[in-house]
Amino acid sequence: MTVDDHALPPVGVTTEVGRLRTVLLHRPGPELTRLTPRNNDRLLFDGIPWVSRAQEEHDAFAEALRSRDVEVLYLADLLEETLGSDEARELAIGSAMESLHLGESLRAYLSAMLFDMAPDDLALSLCAGLRNDEVRHPSPGLVSSLLADDDFLIDPLPNLLFTRDSSVWVRDHVTITSLAMPARSRETQLTELVYRHHPRFAAVQRLHGWDREYVEGGDVLLLAPGVVAVGVGERTTPAGVEGLARQLMSGGIATTVLAVPITQDRATMHLDTVCTMVDVDTVVMYPNIADGLRALTVTTESPAGTPATELELRVTRAEPFLHAAAAAMGIDELKVIDTGLDPTTAEREQWDDGNNTLALAPRLAVAYERNTQTNRRLEEAGIEVVRIAGSELGSGRGGPRCMSCPVLRDEV
Ligand SMILES: NC(=O)NCCC[C@H](N)C(=O)O
């Protein structure tokens, strides 16, 4: 198939706050019904969500975006369309079948079974997983006889909901991230498949990849055109930030990368759990860490176009994040909205993703309604807050920013 690049919808993101035009979401589906009290920790959920209510909350989130002229793409639709291609289907099945739990006979049987599925059913099995008792093997072999009925042959992916983490657009390139937790590592095989094989993205250049050093999208903040902050902690590793910095600079996509160490902790798993942008020069930040956050500034003198592995990187000593960020952005000051909350309230609302806002435009952001005090402070600071319900969605520990991957934003 030849693709006329000019006919493809535009893509590209240079900042966190340019008017949002197109966003990639994942409506929570049957993969959430797989969560039980026995597996929720391993699958990175802090509770067992009420699935239909989570879907209602998510539909309201999507509607809040659409009503503000944002085009909403759904990952499941893109995946299903992608799986119409035999090449994509083979790759998808091949990577899902790599699990060492399967053994040769079961792997061969399952591969054939998946290959015969219609694209929608295959997409469903890849996202919601497949249990041993859901496979009607005419003569079960050794492995399926020994596994329990409710053992997964393909693990479910309940964290697909958090599309922020599995790909990041930087200018007109898409970064395929590499997710650190075993429960999520297969997600980026699917996003890579979509970006590689879906006609909508045929002209897009990809960076990084699911099998490279760990980098998660929730750690990546586009502070200003060419200036990218990357959290380093529980998920993104030091090698991950170096790898990403090299590719961004080699491609001339960024000139400065700030590596921002964050506490290796569930509550602060990504940089965007403690800091998000709500205006071109303003962030909302978890007050308990605002003063302590530091950054190393990474630049290069090597010209763009130098192969990523050959770039000479220059790295400063760690300094306060707000200073380093303002300097890199070329502004006098990166303002922090002081939520002014007492440490206990701040801790409670941070846990419930109060700092995880999604900017729809400068000074217009989506936030969970439950964080009443943080939202009130945002409004007092002049930020218009679009409130959404998240009592069920939040059980996966992610807010509006985590649940959205901007594909197109206006420049500011
Ligand atoms: N950017 C984000 O902070 N994403 C939230 C991810 C939550 C998910 N349950 C996880 O632990 O990876």
From TrEMBL:
The active site is at 402 (amidino-cysteine intermediate). GO terms for molecular function: arginine deiminase activity. SUPFAM superfamilies: Pentein. Transmembrane segments: none annotated. Its EC number is 3.5.3.6. Its main location: cytoplasm. Coiled coil: none annotated. Keywords: Arginine metabolism, Cytoplasm, Hydrolase. The keyword Zinc does not apply. It is found in: Cytoplasm. It is an enzyme of class 3 (hydrolase). The keyword Nucleus does not apply. It catalyses: L-arginine + H2O = L-citrulline + NH4(+). Pathway: Amino-acid degradation; L-arginine degradation via ADI pathway; carbamoyl phosphate from L-arginine: step 1/2. Belongs to the arginine deiminase family. HAMAP family: Arg_deiminase (MF_00242). This is Arginine deiminase.
